[in-house]
């Protein structure tokens, strides 16, 4: 029961079958101890082979690192919990006093984040099943593009048709593009619907054609410019990185005339392009979010803030009410700072070719973090209490009575608000303030979301992870291997920067958050540092095969048992977790390949860049992942054919490692089969198996190197370099 005898607005259930997991974890831990004992007591003698001695030391250190990483990754698996909301109770108790919700949508470049995609996300969040006069939607355009502004202007007009259509027929999803693509032909089961359906679809197609035509032209015609005063702002825009603040209220929710075709009020809709000047650092997405927080506080000041990426459209119209079940719960709601929903995707292949869905993280690890004190903030699909984003510390006085933030009758006009808000989005506003430090999202890190969430938790607040049956948000994943690797490079680099800074969970969170939550952050913080051990494991054992240097127990020796058990148990449990997360066996195999590729390229470059940045040789950068691809690339992606296409240092590393393992595997098999060396098979069996598994993992890469002729094949220059480098490494190892 909640306070005053009210039933709670949400319940928490502990995951089943954890005793089985604890037995598995304990047995693997014992196996790891035996492996360490084997490495210690079978350490090569000082008067033995120097190569074997040094290779043994490196392998032992790598295994110690893998063991440590496995150990810290178990904290988030120990006792996952799952949350379930009661939206009917919320409506019964609080329907008349629901808080205002401000929704932030962020975009940065109209060329890689098409305006039509952006406005579909905007329309989907405008159409939430929530009182429209309590919703305010803000689009932050860090590209400062009049193309994006024009698209938003078109969306504001189309919303007059779209929102009543969504309400009337209770459709899902409420992104027009997603809805009409999932319903290409009208179902006859709803007789009143056909006329409305065809008219709304035609209106959407007309709007889409106008926006895409203008986007292709790359400029706004004079005829269109006359449609709205906001286009006059672009007379002062020099470049994307040099322009004044632009604030335009396209729909003023306070205006009684701002209604849809049924006479119902529309949500407030605001366009913001913060000021940018070459001499000022703009702090990437964190800077954009902080400008949004300030501007929205002047216009609508909603108690709750939702932020979504421009490619993450809302897939669940009830999501606002789901989030409020946590914030408004009488017993526990006052201690909750933010509610994080998972990021799901609508363009995944059946077997998730590049392992981008993070199924296990979403279904096991984040619920485990929730049990430890709360999940991290992942930058999109998160509902925040405004006060916590503005730096408030948790205390008993934080219990809030939900009420309307403003009296609608006593407000400045839209034009006055637009001018006054420009100051809040200026380059100089944050000078000598706590913005980016103790207020708003934190600066100085590529993953501003993680460090911001951690700082909120360190101020005493808790967070919640909610995974409703219907996905809350759907976005797009990279459709090429290089895009996926670059994305992970940015993520892992930011996480590693946090780990090495004063904001490390173990330093910043000491005595502020539970120890198990500190450990739960660690697997992601240490992504980058796993590159060294992985690179060692995929290069040194294969090269030692060429010299016949054994680094593992003989197959007839009992010491092989802990190695075999740890490998089989670990990957069997991993497969089980993946299948229980609605994955496939092929999808699991693709994810294993993806982790190998990331650890040997993305995490390597992230590790090096972080070290160089600490030494002052490079500056912090932010790479936006492209959200579009051409038709050939999309077709190959849908067929689950791996995309290479353009030269990259990452591809050179992957191809070289693949060729190295292929050469070593062929050489070792030749020694065992052709030369019939039973002794070699006995002592080198585990190394041969390891090498063979790496060859199997790299089959798509070999196809791209030698057999494919399409534009997505590996560039010829990469093929030549990788073969030459692999042969050179083999020659050095042999001679």
UniProtKB/TrEMBL annotation:
It is a multi-pass membrane protein. GO terms for biological process: cell wall organization; cellulose biosynthetic process. Gene3D superfamilies: Spore Coat Polysaccharide Biosynthesis Protein SpsA, Chain A. The keyword ATP-binding does not apply. Mn(2+) binds at residues 285, 309. PANTHER family: X-BOX TRANSCRIPTION FACTOR-RELATED. Thought to be a Golgi-localized beta-glycan synthase that polymerize the backbones of noncellulosic polysaccharides (hemicelluloses) of plant cell wall. This is Cellulose synthase-like protein E6.
């Amino acid at each position: 029961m909640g306070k005053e005898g009210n039933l709670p607005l949400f319940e928490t259930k502990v995951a089943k079958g954890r005793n089985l997991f604890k037995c598995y974890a304990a047995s693997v831990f014992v196996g790891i101890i035996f492996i360490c004992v084997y490495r210690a007591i079978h350490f090569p003698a000082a008067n033995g082979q120097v190569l074997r001695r040094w290779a043994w030391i490196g392998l032992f250190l790598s295994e110690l690192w893998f063991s440590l990483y496995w150990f810290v990754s178990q904290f988030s698996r120990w006792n996952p919990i799952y949350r379930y909301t009661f939206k009917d109770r919320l409506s019964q108790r609080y329907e008349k006093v629901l808080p205002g919700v401000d929704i932030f949508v962020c975009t940065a470049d109209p060329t890689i984040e098409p305006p039509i995609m952006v406005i579909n996300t905007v329309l989907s969040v405008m159409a939430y099943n929530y009182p429209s006069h309590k919703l305010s939607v803000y689009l932050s355009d860090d590209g400062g593009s009049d193309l994006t502004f024009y698209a938003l202007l078109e969306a504001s007009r189309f919303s007059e048709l779209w929102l009543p259509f969504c309400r009337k027929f209770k459709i899902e999803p409420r992104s027009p593009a997603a809805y009409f693509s999932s319903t290409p032909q009208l179902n006859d089961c709803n007789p009143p619907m056909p006329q409305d359906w065809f008219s709304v679809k035609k209106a959407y197609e007309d709007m889409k054609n106008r926006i895409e035509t203008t986007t292709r032209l790359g400029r706004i015609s004079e005829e269109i410019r006359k449609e709205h005063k906001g286009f006059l702002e672009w007379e002062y825009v020099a470049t994307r990185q040099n322009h004044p603040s632009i604030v335009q209220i396209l729909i003023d929710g306070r205006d009684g005339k701002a209604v849809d075709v049924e006479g119902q009020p529309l949500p407030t809709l605001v366009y913001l392009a913060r000021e940018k000047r070459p001499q000022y650092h703009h702090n990437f997405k964190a800077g954009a979010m902080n400008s949004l927080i300030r501007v929205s506080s002047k216009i609508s000041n909603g108690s709750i803030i939702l932020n979504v990426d421009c490619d993450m459209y809302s897939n669940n119209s009830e999501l606002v009410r789901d989030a409020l079940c946590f914030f408004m719960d009488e017993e526990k709601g006052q201690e909750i700072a933010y509610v994080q929903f998972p990021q799901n995707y609508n363009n995944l292949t059946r077997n998730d070719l590049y392992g981008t869905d993070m199924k296990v993280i979403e279904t096991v690890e984040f619920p485990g973090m929730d049990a430890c004190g709360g999940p991290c903030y992942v930058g999109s699909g998160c509902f925040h209490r405004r006060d916590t984003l503005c730096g408030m510390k948790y205390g008993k006085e934080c219990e809030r009575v939900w009420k309307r933030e403003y009296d609608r009758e006593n407000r400045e006009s839209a034009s006055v608000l637009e001018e006054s808000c420009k100051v809040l989005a200026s380059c100089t506003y944050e000078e000598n303030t706590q913005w980016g430090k103790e207020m708003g999202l934190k600066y100085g890190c590529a993953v501003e979301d993680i460090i911001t969430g951690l700082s909120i938790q360190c101020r005493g607040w808790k967070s919640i992870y909610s995974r409703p049956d219907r996905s809350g948000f759907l976005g797009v994943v990279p459709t090429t291997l290089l895009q996926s690797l670059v994305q992970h490079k940015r993520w892992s680099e930011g996480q590693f920067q946090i780990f090495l800074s004063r904001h490390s969970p173990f330093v910043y969170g000491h005595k502020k958050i539970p120890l198990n939550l500190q450990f739960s952050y660690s697997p992601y913080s240490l992504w980058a540092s796993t590159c060294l051990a992985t690179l060692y494991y995929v290069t040194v054992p294969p090269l030692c095969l060429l010299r016949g240097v054994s680094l593992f127990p003989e197959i007839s020796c009992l010491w092989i048992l802990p190695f075999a058990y740890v490998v089989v148990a670990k990957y069997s449990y991993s497969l089980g977790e993946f299948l229980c997360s609605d994955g496939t066996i092929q999808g699991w195999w693709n994810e294993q390949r993806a982790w190998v590729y990331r650890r040997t390229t993305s995490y390597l470059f992230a590790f090096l860049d972080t070290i160089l940045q600490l030494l002052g040789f490079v500056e912090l950068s932010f790479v936006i992942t492209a959200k579009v691809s051409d038709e050939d690339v999309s077709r190959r992606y849908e067929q689950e054919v791996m995309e290479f296409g353009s030269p990259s240092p990452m591809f050179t590393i992957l191809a070289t490692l693949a060729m190295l393992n292929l050469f070593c595997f062929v050489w070792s098999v030749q020694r065992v089969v052709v030369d019939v060396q039973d002794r070699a098979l006995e002592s080198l069996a585990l190394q041969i198996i390891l090498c063979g598994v790496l060859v199997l993992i790299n089959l798509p890469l070999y196809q791209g190197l030698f057999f494919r002729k399409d534009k997505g094949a590996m560039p010829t220059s990469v093929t030549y370099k990788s073969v030459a480098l692999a042969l050179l490494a083999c020659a050095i190892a042999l001679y």
